[in-house]
Design a protein that fits this description.
single chain; alpha+beta; 14% strand
Length: 118
């Protein structure tokens, strides 16, 4: 697992200038709450980038009761936890025109959430 590139949840504000440190930390907390519902760290995720599947390892802090309670609303926590993934997906495509497949894939992030919770 050590050979895999890490997908970091901490320090989001350092990599995304539109985020404050507090907001980035909140997103990281929400992601850890979502991941910990079904997993223990570290988790290996398969990401599709430029038509290729890439494996990334996510190491996260298992949230304590206070953090879990702060993100107890499953829909809000899922949306906030997914934000960094969507942001990363878009930043990986910066400077290029998105294909129709790219747009459909990105729109599918929201569609999947809507199907799950509505």
């Amino acid at each position: 697992m050590s050979d895999l590139e890490s997908l970091r949840l901490d320090g989001l504000h350092e990599r995304h200038p539109g985020l404050t440190q507090a907001l980035g930390q909140s997103y990281a907390e929400a992601a850890s709450v979502c991941l910990s519902r079904h997993h223990q760290p570290p988790v290996i995720l398969s990401l599709k980038h430029a038509g290729n599947d890439q494996l990334r390892v996510v190491n996260f802090v298992v949230p304590d009761e206070r953090v879990s309670n702060a993100h107890a609303n499953e829909i809000d926590a899922t949306e906030a936890g997914a934000y960094p993934v969507c942001e990363k997906w878009l930043k990986d495509r910066k400077g290029r025109t998105l294909s129709n497949d790219d747009i459909a894939h990105y729109q599918g992030f929201g569609e999947k959430r809507n199907r799950k919770y509505t």
